[in-house]
Amino acid sequence: MSSENSHVFRLPRPLRLETGSVLPHVEVTYHTYGQLSPTRDNVLWVCHALTANSDVLEWWPGLVGPGCHFDPSEWFIVCANVLGSCYGTTGPLTPDPSSGEAAYQQFPLVTIRDMVAVHEALREHLALARIHTLIGGSLGGQQAVEWAVQRPAVFENLVLLATSARHSAWGIAFNEAQRLAILADPTYHQGTPTGGAAGLRAARAVALLSYRSHHAYGSTQTDQDEAKITDFLASSYQRYQGDKLVARFDAYSYVALSQAMDSHNVGRGRGSVQAALGRIRARTLVLGITSDVLFPPQEQQMLARYIKGAMYAEMDSQYGHDGFLIETAQITHFLERFYVQTYVH
Questions:
Q1: CATH superfamily of domain region 6-168+265-339
Q2: Which of 65, 115, 314, 340 has the fewest CB atoms below 10 angstroms from its CB?
Q3: Would the annotation count 204 as a binding residue?
Q4: Which of the residues 85, 138, 213, 263 is marked catalytic?
Q5: Does residue 321 carry a catalytic annotation?
Q6: Is position 7 annotated as part of the catalytic site?
């Protein structure tokens, strides 16, 4: 991650989680780019997805960065690492200040609402009364929609990509399959920094099947050697992607964040999903992806149906759910249409 634009904020008080558990000390690592305008009306807040970090220029090239739609020369860009992650914000591997020991598998359950509570504390610390645009895809979109429900007066524009108002039974099942792989690794229960690595490798292989599409695998991982009976491209691809994740992430954060994703339901305690979405006052753009099997387009259509005045558009992509990270030209096109009347700097 880039360190030049990286900052750390410590919450001034203990954080009471939605479950009632308390985290006495919470630190947040976040990145900022660009400068606040004199009228403080150019804030872009990005919420990141499952295994990403706060360095949005690193993982969303083509959309955020110099020469992109969200250019730091025009925008003041904020992205905070989520609670429970392993990229600087308090999570399962964070040493407890009093004991020096990490919680590992004993880290308490956190929800999307707990993540949003940390974002809200950071927003207050930065004295950002208004956010021009709040954007997020997948788990990031879940945070964004929850935050927009909680603080309708704060956000002027809301951009939701490949996400939902409530995590589906299908999505929960995928996450549980991944957690079962991790829990089957005996090293996970030993509570060491590298615990569960083999399980995490298997979990990533499961996850990829929900991130990409049948067509994407067919076009990139089909062997041309008709005589092959083993060691297929698709097999080595799954192993390679698992190794890549194990090198940069840990099993304990993966379990914590996947459980947080499962908790997502904006309707909880608010009467219904429809009633909760009705609280949103931001101008909203919702983007679906034709080939997304994890968050299929009907979930974004439902968001657009119940968020007043929302604009809905669909990206045609072979990349499945990962299209929200890859199809930056299409995203830019729809953002330009969305901002046509209000994008003034």
A1: Alpha/Beta hydrolase fold, catalytic domain (3.40.50.1820)
A2: 340
A3: yes
A4: 138
A5: yes
A6: no
